Amino acid sequence: MRFERSHTRRAVALTAVGSLVLLVSACGGGDDGSSGSGSGSSGGALEGRGPITFATGKDTSGNLTNQVAAWNSQHPEEKVTVSELPESADQQRAQMIQNAQIKSDAFSVLNLDVVWTAEFAANRWVTQLPEDQFPDLGKLLPSTVDTAKYRDKLYAVPVTSDGGLLYYRKDLLDKAGVQPPKTWAEMKAACDKVKALPEAKSMSCYAGQYEKYEGLTVNFSEAVNGAGGVVVGDDGKPNVDTPEALEGLNFLVNGFKTGEIPKAAITYQEEPGRRAFQEGSLIFHRNWPYVYALASKTDGSSKIAGKFAVAPLPGLKGPGVSTLGGHNYAISEFAKNKATAADFIKFMSSEERQKANIEKTSQAPTWASLYEDATLNKQFPYLAPLKASIETAKSRPKVVKYGDVTTAIQEAAYGALSGTTPPKDALSQLQTKLSTLITQ
């Protein structure tokens, strides 16, 4: 998702409000009687034309203005105004939920983390979309289209995808005579050899995102999956109190204990981690594709331009497993000018616009054809492994009470990483909590 890039700490108050809203909605507060029965609106005609508002997280790529300007120049009577929400995914979600709870038409199109689709659809906060009005869905990566559906009905359109990647200092690995690692043990061995170099002795081995926010859910899930475990099984039931999950969690816990993961990383969200890597503090760094363009800048903002490369995430015994990220565009159930909103989504999700976006931001597209584009592959040599990462990625739990579920995961993982809860106890407690949340 990737999810929105953030270098702010989690807004506890906003998240608490979001959780309260979820509780009310679960008791029927989200049904205003206008959407019919079942899982939301009927997906009928999308009516109304005129100006709309696009609610999205803070644009750290700097390219959203260009994308929206391209629409506005062609549709002067149906201009889009960007309502920029905070960088923090938790804060974005809380603000969108508050807006929906009061049935406000302030937001027309919502930029949703892929894992929010089920929650927003089940609570009837977004409009069901007629699939025949979005004929290009069959040209997108199937895994991304799946994230836009709830109970086999379309509620959003995937515009960007995401798979976790391992960024590494190619210059230093080459000098130390080691290859990109495929396992966690190989990564540790590579770090030992690199740190023997005079210029690398003060560097840390590895970091991801470990602050108590959505990124921790992703990093925890990837560690568990990379060891052969699951957080929630294919049967929809939690199964996290297992030896495999413990192996994955211990990979992170031991990293903090040994110093291979720097202590400061307990506060890392995407942006602080990216900056640490760009400043030359990390040998390996787990992050999303968007980092590639920023770390490659030659304007002085990156000390490692031309010195890094990208590989698949490592796992316990072989290549790891990414958590599926990305963003879907949905129409607020309470929006005016839904016909314009639908056309804006088609425009932003088109092959042309997605190509223009990856060229500027390195964000992962959802069009399958763009991963085969020769020009893009020359500019972004990681596209082939990224496509494989997305196609084999595992989704976070698709549950209506996702806010409560991800909070439980974050609290358990953070307790173990910070040393306040033994890893085995953290997983046992998490299993109990998830069993309660997911079966309700």
Automatic annotation (TrEMBL):
<protein>
    <submittedName>
        <fullName>ABC transporter substrate-binding protein</fullName>
    </submittedName>
</protein>
<keyword id="KW-0813">Transport</keyword>
<dbReference type="GO" id="GO:0015768">
    <property type="term" value="P:maltose transport"/>
</dbReference>
<dbReference type="GO" id="GO:0042956">
    <property type="term" value="P:maltodextrin transmembrane transport"/>
</dbReference>
<feature type="region of interest" description="Disordered">
    <location>
        <begin position="32"/>
        <end position="61"/>
    </location>
</feature>
<feature type="compositionally biased region" description="Gly residues">
    <location>
        <begin position="32"/>
        <end position="47"/>
    </location>
</feature>
<dbReference type="GO" id="GO:1901982">
    <property type="term" value="F:maltose binding"/>
</dbReference>
<dbReference type="GO" id="GO:0055052">
    <property type="term" value="C:ATP-binding cassette (ABC) transporter complex, substrate-binding subunit-containing"/>
</dbReference>
<comment type="similarity">
    <text>Belongs to the bacterial solute-binding protein 1 family.</text>
</comment>
<dbReference type="Pfam" id="PF01547">
    <property type="entry name" value="SBP_bac_1"/>
</dbReference>
<feature type="signal peptide">
    <location>
        <begin position="1"/>
        <end position="26"/>
    </location>
</feature>
<dbReference type="InterPro" id="IPR006059">
    <property type="entry name" value="SBP"/>
</dbReference>
<keyword id="KW-0732">Signal</keyword>
